[in-house]
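Structure tokens please, single chain.
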Amino acid sequence: MGYAWTLGGERHRFDDLRALLAAASPRRSGDELAGLAAASEAARIAARYALADLPLRRFLDEALVPYEADEVTRLILDTHDAAAFAPVAHLTVGGFRDWLLSYDADAAALAALAPGLTPEMAAAVSKLMRNQDLIAVARKCRVVTAFRSTIGLPGRLATRLQPNHPSDDPRGIAAAVLDGLLCGSGDAVIGVNPATDSVPNGIALLEMLDALRAQYDIPTQTCVLTHVTNSLAMMERGAPVDLVFQSVAGTEAANAGFGVSLAVLREAEAAALSLGRGTAGRNVMYFETGQGAALSAEAHHGVDQQTVEARAYAVCRAFRPLLVNTVVGFIGPEYLYDGKQIIRAGLEDHFCGKLLGVPMGCDVCYTNHAEADGDDMDVLMTALTVAGCNFLIAVPGADDVMLGYQSLSFHDILTLRATLGVRPAPEFESWLARMEMLDARGRLRELAPQSPQLARLLPYAADAG
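Here you go.
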């Protein structure tokens, strides 16, 4: 079924729903690389007019990726909640945008609606929104999860402490963990990307991180971001696995490229739940996504990169994760060319994830060959915090020395908390107070070299390895 719109006397035609969504997307290098982008700015605006007039129900009738050939499409359609969808079922995409920005779309209404929305609906309405619209709606969405700490509560901003090391040296990782804890980071997770992706190495890192957590009774969770099958193997060997990690995408073929399927994820979730390691909740999965993943695997089925990214959140949603984050600028300028595109993508991903009921965070980042810099990341981290982002990722000095890209620093998180008044997860905030690392106003103390607070943590860094 084709779509068309006349703009300024010129008739613009779009062959099918995939073409319409792609043409309506803000400009980005990945869609241009795939040959999906609008042919002109006039065509982009015409596509948005046509999209605004499209009934939301159309997304239930016209699958972008064939049902018979894709388990993600089957997951989306087979789990769709018609009763939850009913309050907005009569709306067009444009009408849905207006409703989302209205007072009627409060936190309770949005939470009730989430099971009735498909990723394609969320992606479509985002294409009609300015950045401020994405922020305003996402801020109203609350997705709260818990394991040892509670993530996503109003007025809170959690952090993943990412202490990566190019050789997985325990002392180097320990120093980075200490740096982050002393800056109040780590309440979402202390999560290491291993340089050597082997089961014995993963177990060694997990045991080191868990020993730290237990020694200081830190109410957080640890994770080695290895492949899900490695996590299964580590659990079989008795390793202290808190969270199971996996990168996921929005099509079956793209997930196959990651070496994963829905069945494997179900097996891993069940195994992690059986360990019963959580104290505040039972959300045991951690997923990462990113625009461009399906295209880079040539598994996008002609769907624009933002829409196929939103489909990944349907995969995430099915497994009740503790954490989901988009590594927004990590894949490179072939997919998000510059700071403007990275900022827009980060806000889109956060909006779509939250609207679908996913506990979204973000790795505010860029690669060194992208047309972006730290000022762009300052804009995005601030906008996401205003938008109610569940967590952000922070690394020592904002420079990941193992993965070779630029992210946020622990001090960036301190700036956001001080400037915007957001606080750590409540359990972690109480721990900081018990460790006497907060002042009378709840702010992180500047510790002297000989302070007792620092002395409590230094033995771990000295003994690691």
